[in-house]
Design a protein that fits this description.
DNA polymerase, domain 1, three-stranded mixed sheet, elongated, Ubiquitin-like (UB roll), 3 domains
Length: 184
């Protein structure tokens, strides 16, 4: 009888230990799943930020919005849109230009009057300018130029020149001094 009790006790202890061990494995598995989900989310976020969305229209085979890797050029956007139509005026398209997120690539047809940025000649594009270029603006020194670059990196491209007043240190007075020298 004593042997049976000892055997029952041993079996009970064994099953108890095995059962506890299985519960611990489940906890680890759940934690592992949560960590995996976090890593996957971070990877998705990183992947999403490594692409630009570009609208390609005009004399191309398939107008539309295309997702292209950051650093892509206009010619790659046109290829994604199926290429030029036969009557495309390719001379008015800078195919080497690097694209930015939310860019619009318009391909005119031959004979179409193309609106140029002649009003913007000599102006500084506040969405693309380097620190040195920004420092050529009246009243913009090194720290303000760095603030402009930091703002556009964190907030994205300026949508209109007036948006530059959202940058710390640039108020209406300074904007009035620089507005004739900047473009987007």
């Amino acid at each position: 009888m004593r042997r049976i009790r000892i055997m029952v006790l041993i079996i009970t202890l064994f099953l108890g230990l095995v059962g506890c061990q299985k519960n611990d494995d489940k906890k680890v598995s759940l934690e592992t799943v949560e960590e995996t989900k976090d890593v996957e989310h971070e990877q998705e976020t990183a992947e999403n930020t490594s692409y630009n969305f570009v609208y390609v229209c005009g004399a191309v085979k398939r107008e539309g919005v295309y997702e292209l890797p950051v650093g892509s050029r206009v010619y790659q956007a046109i290829e994604a849109a199926g290429g030029f139509l036969e009557d495309a005026n390719v001379r008015n398209v800078n195919q080497a230009e690097i694209l930015e997120d939310e860019a619009r690539v318009y391909v005119p047809v031959i004979g179409e009057e193309v609106q140029t940025d002649s009003d913007d000649e000599g102006k500084i594009n506040i969405n693309k300018a380097s620190k040195e270029e920004l420092m050529t603006l009246p009243g913009v020194g090194e720290s303000r130029a760095e603030s402009i670059i930091k703002y556009r990196e964190e907030q994205g491209a300026f949508r209109k020149v007036e948006d530059i007043m959202q940058v710390s240190g640039i108020k209406e007075g300074l904007f009035e001094k620089i507005k004739d020298y900047i473009t987007i």
